[in-house]
Amino acid sequence: VNKIAILTSGGDSPGMNAALRAVVRTGLYFGLEVYGIMRGYSGMMEDDIFQMDSRSVANIIQRGGTILKSARCKEFYTAEGRAKAYANLKKRDIDGLVVIGGDGSFTGAMKLQAEFGIPVIGLPGTIDKDLYGTDFTIGFDTAVNTAVEAIDKIRDTADAHDRLFIVEVMGRHAGYIALHSGIATGAETILIPEASTNMDDVIASLSEKEKRKKLVNIIVVAEGDAFGGANEVAKVIKERLPKFDTKVSILGHIQRGGSPTCSDRLIASRMGYHAIEALLAGKSNVMVGIINNEMSYTPLEIAIREKDIIDEDWLRIVKILAS
Ligand code: ADP
């Protein structure tokens, strides 16, 4: 490997810049030429590619978003689109690619690798923590901390007015943001895609609390919860428990932005460094992850396909602590 390119793609996440900085500087350290591709696969297609030096990534470790920008690119789903995009790498003799993104971005990278043989390394850049083969994804910790801060504030007003708040956090297929932020804010219950939502149980538990005059409650719902998100849950609760003053709050995109936490900067730096080491060691088609504080390299296909199992223990703990 002599010349590598890097891109950020799909949903942005805080810490992508820190990862980018690590990849660029480690690449340069090992004598590689490093190219930045703007707007993910769109920029690869449109030849929006530029050579990077150490200064191009100065003063970005603390910034959310991504200086390379991100995009969703329809054309890349087709073989012709990918051929057109690859031609722009080929003409610069780029012979390695680092993709920071989520499962969609990894699927695109895998196809590029299969069709043109270019080695690709994936870095898990997603707030959802929905990739298999790593204990952390870049941006998850920041998103959870943002959610915790917001839910703490909601609790103040819930407490002042004796309200039941149903707070929806991000997570279409993975409930980790809901699980972690819910536990950390003392939620009454947490509804996530990985566990079936039994509204009868939720109602029973709230009725019991109502009898004890415990009217201040927070329910944290992942947007991809099987029941259909916070608004659907609220509908049922309002109907069946009219005594509760029930409000919905959907946190939305604030969870994507902001300065990355120390933890996200650390894992981004570490993963970025190891992305280059992996390329130099001849690895390809793998996602760099961290498991039990050791680096791990999971085939992209498995990182996308396999699912973590959420420990039932956590849900039990939620129940016991919320009594
Ligand atoms: P994320 O990486 O966050 O999951 P997306 O699913 O939007 O985000 O994927 C980002 C981009 O990756 C897409 O816009 C597309 O260009 C590319 N991509 C996603 N899935 C595929 C696929 N099946 N084949 C080829 N390219 C894909």
UniProtKB/TrEMBL annotation:
Under the heading InterPro entries, the entry gives: ATP_PFK, ATP_PFK_prok-type, PFKA_ATP_prok, Phosphofructokinase_CS, Phosphofructokinase_dom, PKF_sf
Q: What does this protein do?
A: Catalyzes the phosphorylation of D-fructose 6-phosphate to fructose 1,6-bisphosphate by ATP, the first committing step of glycolysis.
Q: What is this protein called?
A: ATP-dependent 6-phosphofructokinase
**Catalysed reactions, as listed in the record:** beta-D-fructose 6-phosphate + ATP = beta-D-fructose 1,6-bisphosphate + ADP + H(+)
Q: Look up the domain of life of the source.
A: Bacteria
Q: What regulates the activity here? A: Allosterically activated by ADP and other diphosphonucleosides, and allosterically inhibited by phosphoenolpyruvate.
The pathway is: Carbohydrate degradation; glycolysis; D-glyceraldehyde 3-phosphate and glycerone phosphate from D-glucose: step 3/4
Enumerate the residues binding ATP.
11, 72-73, 102-105
Organism listed in the record:
Arachidicoccus soli
Q: Which sites bind Mg(2+)?
A: 103
Cofactor(s) in the UniProt record: Mg(2+)
Name the gene behind this protein.
pfkA
User: Which N-terminal stretch is annotated as signal sequence?
Assistant: none
One GO molecular-function annotation for this sequence?
identical protein binding
Provide the active-site residues from the annotation.
128 (proton acceptor)
Q: Which Pfam families does the annotation name?
A: PFK
Q: What interactions and quaternary structure are annotated?
A: Homotetramer.
Q: Which GO terms describe its cellular component?
A: 6-phosphofructokinase complex
Q: Which residues of the sequence carry a binding annotation for substrate?
A: 126-128, 163, 170-172, 223, 247, 253-256
Q: What top-tier enzyme class does this entry carry?
A: transferase
- Which keywords accompany this UniProt record? Allosteric enzyme, ATP-binding, Cytoplasm, Glycolysis, Kinase, Magnesium, Metal-binding, Nucleotide-binding, Transferase
* Residues binding ADP: 21-25, 155, 186-188, 212, 214-216
Q: Where is the Phosphofructokinase domain?
A: 3-279
